[in-house]
Amino acid sequence: MEPVNVSSLCRFSGMSRANWYKTRRHRKRRSVDKDLVLSLVKEQRRLHPRMGGRKLRDVLRFPLYEAGTCMGRDRFFELLRAEELLVPPAPKSCRTTNSHHCLPLFCNLVRDLAPSGPNQIWVSDITYIRTENDFVYLALIMDRYSRKIVGYHCGDTLEALGCITALSQALADLPKGCHPIHHSDRGCQYCSHEYVNCLKKHGLKVSMTETDHCAENAHAERINGTLKIEYGLGATFRNADQARHAVKQAVWLYNHRRPHASLHMRIPAEVHREAA
């Protein structure tokens, strides 16, 4: 390649030599910044396949600062869009709630209640995970203040036992003297005598949705969607063991690595530990 005649280029463009070199350094720096950002985004997407751009930018803020890279929001999203790294819309899901039963029902105790700390309100839900031959069913309990998943179980049936196992896990780490309100939809698992008795035995008040089940249990519904959309649990797994392994990994990543907008981009496990 022939060497660039800077003097000729400057005369042709009407640009000073100093300005030409400054522009070239700027272009080179933008290229380096772009390559760094893309490599960091792809690294995070291996852990969080469908994490949104806003959270990605927050997660990458410190490593970019350490590298001396400054990229504004608009340029960051333009880069992701150009590289086809923006997250496409999520597919619609189906319901697993059976509220047509003769079991006891309870009032919604949390409709206008905002927790001021962890272990005041727990929200729960159950969802399906598809395998090649069948389904497994994931029962989750989340602390509404910290957004941490405090208990979960991935079982082979929709029976109440899976929800009770998730509840037992949550209760095992509950500090002494704490009695959160347990909120759920009116699914038969949560209305079962075994489940309600377990709640009452440990001093937890029982709260349930009344009319609009999705809206009244939106926090729990949202966590199921997040795990499916951002962490791949909406995929079809080869078998139940593979699905359970994916659930374990997804819950850990959600609790310990994913920033949450309502927590001012902090991590659920960190907020739960510090506030408690």
What is the topological layout?
Elements: H1 6-13, H2 17-47, H3 53-59, H4 61-66, H5 73-82, E1 121-130, E2 135-143, E3 149-155, H6 160-172, E4 181-184, H7 188-191, H8 193-201, E5 206-208, H9 213-216, H10 218-230, H11 240-257, H12 268-275
Parallel strand pairs: 1-4, 4-5
Antiparallel strand pairs: 1-2, 2-3
Helix pairs in contact: 6-8
What gyration radius follows from the Cα positions, in whole Å?
A: 25 Å
- Share of residues in strands: 5-15%
The H/E string reads HHHHHEEEHEHHEHHHH
Termini gap? 65 Å
Name the shape in a single word. Answer: globular
Mean pLDDT, all residues: 82
Q: Unreliable segments (pLDDT under 50, ≥5 consecutive)?
A: 24-29
Query: How many extended strands?
Result: 5
Instruction: Name the helicity range.
Output: 40-55%
Structural class: alpha/beta
Q: Give the helix tally.
A: 12
- What kind of sheet is the major sheet? 5 strands, mixed
Which strand order do you get reading across the main beta sheet?
3-2-1-4-5
Protein described:
The model is unreliable at 24-29 (pLDDT under 50). The chain is an alpha/beta fold. The relative contact order is 0.13. A hairpin with a 5-residue loop joins strand 2 and strand 3 (149-155). It has helices spanning 6-13, 17-47, 53-59, 61-66, 73-82, 160-172, 188-191, 193-201, 213-216, 218-230, 240-257, 268-275; strands at residues 121-130, 135-143, 149-155, 181-184, 206-208. The protein has twelve helices and five strands. The longest helix has 31 residues, at 17-47.
